[in-house]
Automatic annotation (TrEMBL):
Gene3D superfamilies: von Willebrand factor, type A domain. This is Uncharacterized protein. InterPro entries: vWFA_dom_sf. CDD domains: vWFA (cd00198).
Length: 380
């Protein structure tokens, strides 16, 4: 009797997506809400309850209270107690729930996956830039072989194709003139300062602009700490003044009743970069408004929100030129469409010889990530 030989190869079946649990579905919504509410657990849960009433997210067997308990069991939230030992569930109105470092990491990871997913689907995104600085070259280019090129950079498929075209298939010869080399890229260490505008205009006009900025900062910090540990990322916020914030503070970031002191932000950013040993340094600035504030030598604030104040604007141009002398390019991500503000950004970018992107909120993350990757590469 003949033995049946086992079949080798791949067996393809219809993809059946894994069904998400109620907790996983709620957790997705909850992470979005906790980002919007700047880490306010009670407000996020109130919004979740309203969504549950409208869309029936829970069941009789699994309620919002069960979800909260599972968040505690999994270590995403914790109950904080006041010095008197009382907590938020004691009915005294003191204490309450707060998010943990585990949830903060989850928010950063989620932001990274969201932005990287969009990059993979849509490529480089649609953006407009008038001034191009250093490090904006693309990889994957081909050129003719030159003496001294490494053999490992020769692309045989393209080279053989050239030989067939040049010499014919019947009399096949591969010569030096047929060889094609792919451009290699050197990834250098990079020190980056991300400036985030937290002036009041970031939540005006019915548009939440601070949440996308927070998401970009969380995603960029997760990218650098996990993929490029030798790179550095410092984050600062600027309103009437400028001050640094830590990565763990990003979920709680909120706007204030501030004007826009762009000069203070640039001064702090350049001071941070002076201390870095990396040769390659850059500043990313996310803003939606015009500079409207300066701190005077005597400590008083000079503010003017009406149009573009010449005194304030000239100070910004001086800072841009100073950064240029220090070989620090500034990339401005402008999330406003007013023509006179775009003119200011154009002039500011020209003074620095950096780059300017005019973008909607939806494309902000993809643009910053693509630009960061491009600036880390140098053609050899």
């Amino acid at each position: 009797m003949k033995k049946k030989t086992p079949r080798a190869g791949f067996v393809f079946t219809k993809h059946t997506p894994k069904e998400k649990s109620i907790f996983d579905r709620l957790f997705e919504v909850f992470q979005e809400l906790i980002t919007h509410t700047s880490g306010d657990f009670d407000e996020a849960i109130d919004w979740l309850r309203q969504l549950d009433k409208e869309y029936e997210l829970t069941t009789a067997d699994y309620t919002i209270e069960d979800f909260i308990q599972e968040l505690k069991d999994r270590g995403f939230i914790r109950e904080e107690f006041k010095p008197d030992g009382k907590g938020g569930d004691k009915g005294d109105g003191k204490g309450g729930m707060s998010i943990t470092e585990k949830l903060e990491r989850s928010l950063r990871k989620r932001a990274l996956e969201q932005i990287f997913g969009k990059i993979k689907r849509s490529g480089q995104g649609n953006h407009k830039t008038k001034y191009v600085g250093s490090g904006d070259e693309q990889s994957g280019d081909f050129r003719n072989y030159q003496f001294g090129d490494g053999l490992n950079n020769i692309r045989m498929t393209e080279s053989i194709k050239n030989a067939q075209i040049n010499n014919g298939a019947e009399n096949f010869r591969l010569t030096e003139n047929d060889l094609v080399v792919e451009e290699s890229m050197h990834k250098s260490q990079m020190s980056t300062v991300l400036m985030i505008d937290i002036s009041h205009s970031m939540i005006l006009y019915g548009e939440d602009r601070i949440t996308p900025a927070k998401k970009v900062a969380m995603a960029l910090s997760e990218l650098i700490t996990t993929h490029y540990p030798k790179d550095t990322l410092d984050i600062l916020v600027f309103g009437n003044d400028a001050w640094p914030i830590k990565i763990k503070d990003l979920p709680y970031l909120n706007v204030g009743p501030y004007h826009t002191n762009t000069v203070a932000g640039l001064e702090l950013a350049m001071d941070m970069l002076r201390r870095k040993r990396n040769t390659n340094k850059q500043i990313f600035m996310i803003t939606d408004g015009k500079p409207s504030c300066l701190r005077l030598p005597d400590g008083r604030y000079y503010k003017n929100s009406n149009g573009l104040d010449e005194h304030i604007v000239n100070k910004c141009y001086m800072m841009a030129a100073q950064a240029r002398k220090l070989h620090i390019p500034i990339t401005t991500f402008m999330i406003a469409s007013d023509p006179y503000l775009q003119q200011f950004v154009d002039n500011f970018t020209e003074a620095n010889q950096g780059k300017a992107f005019y973008t909607a909120l939806q494309g902000l993350g993809e643009m910053i990530f693509t630009d960061y990757e491009n600036n880390r590469k140098r053609k050899l």
